[in-house]
From TrEMBL:
A Pfam family reported for this protein in Swiss-Prot or TrEMBL: Pkinase
Free-text function comment from the UniProt entry: Receptor kinase that detects X.oryzae pv. oryzae protein Ax21 to promote innate immunity. Following X.oryzae pv. oryzae protein Ax21 detection, undergoes cleavage, releasing the processed protein kinase Xa21 chain. The processed protein kinase Xa21 chain released by protein cleavage after X.oryzae pv. oryzae protein Ax21 detection translocates into the nucleus where it can bind and regulate WRKY62, a transcription factor. Confers resistance to the bacterial pathogen X.oryzae pv. oryzae (Xoo).
Membrane topology, as annotated: Single-pass membrane protein
PANTHER family on file: OS04G0122200 PROTEIN (PTHR27008), PROTEIN KINASE DOMAIN-CONTAINING PROTEIN (PTHR27008:SF570)
Claim: Kinase is one of the keywords in the record: yes
Organism: Aegilops tauschii
Keyword check for Transmembrane helix: yes
Catalytic activity: L-seryl-[protein] + ATP = O-phospho-L-seryl-[protein] + ADP + H(+); L-threonyl-[protein] + ATP = O-phospho-L-threonyl-[protein] + ADP + H(+)
Record's protein name: Receptor kinase-like protein Xa21
Amino acid sequence: MKLPPCSTNASKKLHLKLIMIISISSGVLLLIVLCSIVCLLVQQEEQATPYAELANATNGFASENLIGVGSFGSVYRGRLAIHDQQVIVAVKVFNLQQRCASQSFLAECKTLRCARHQNLVKILTVCSSMDFQSQDFKALVFEFLPNGNLDQWIHEPAEENDQDKALNLIGRLSIAIDVASALDYFHQHMPLPIIHCDLKPSNTLLDSDIVAHAGDFGLARALPKDPSGCLEKSSGWATMRGTIGYAAPEYGLGNKVQILGDVYSYGVLLLEMFTGKRPTGGEFGEALGLHKHVQMALRVPDRTTSCYQRTKMEEKQTPQTLAGKEIISIACITSILDIGVSCSKETPIDRMQIRDALKELMKIKDKFLMHLSSMQVSSN
């Protein structure tokens, strides 16, 4: 019939396109199913707990069990049956009379529901019901972390005979790495980046091994894929940006939340942890501040170590003991303070990314421990 032969190339290309579309669609569907399964398992693990059980666990929310008070509520120590085992827990009760407390409760639920990381507080269960007076009641139940918060360890001096309650250089560096790891997880390894919005020492909790866990996600929010299409409300919970001294300066201008806002807070936390000075302390004056205080000290090598808050044990060490270790420590402290200054720069674009800060801190720790180990070997 003298017809042209059928084109096999076109059909092959169409076939390949179909295979690719089916493969990609199957992969996406599988990912969604896996995420759904994970969230379902988490939800099953975190079954809601009746009000009566929490009241009984805390002895009626007795004052002797009160371990902390925050912007949106109070935290009580209690003993609760979890998976047929009696465990010590921290019960965060929201003061629903406080403006935006309900939004804070929802923010923590959303943030921690599918989050799993060794440097985050672990949520065990929730309660959203009525109390014995038929009033709305909302609470979150967390794993109890026995060593309090980082603010206490920095600013409440240890007793002379209780050096276990003092953080030495390597202890502070380890905590700095823990907190950076938690932030890196939220910023880089979640379906949508999570912004903490209120990172500070009092929201950093320590477990029995002095491992740090980031906590209090009452102001946290997910960063949308298209921030330009997300208009924030002009008032209320959506405008809250953390604590004075730790909140990024651009938030004071009404700018939207961003990852680099958390980086600023982390930089301030890092400087506070190693200097022992609060960012809102009056000793600097309004024109200076903690960031500039450290920045100026770093320009004069002899002043760098004067910034570092030594423990009583470190102060008692003799010049002979410090001979080699002091040189290593000065280099370590200088590098850490440099990172703190880089993270807390005023302009967001000038700040170090948290993943880079984490990498640098881990390198500093490894190098410091390697030098200490070699010194011990040579002394033997």
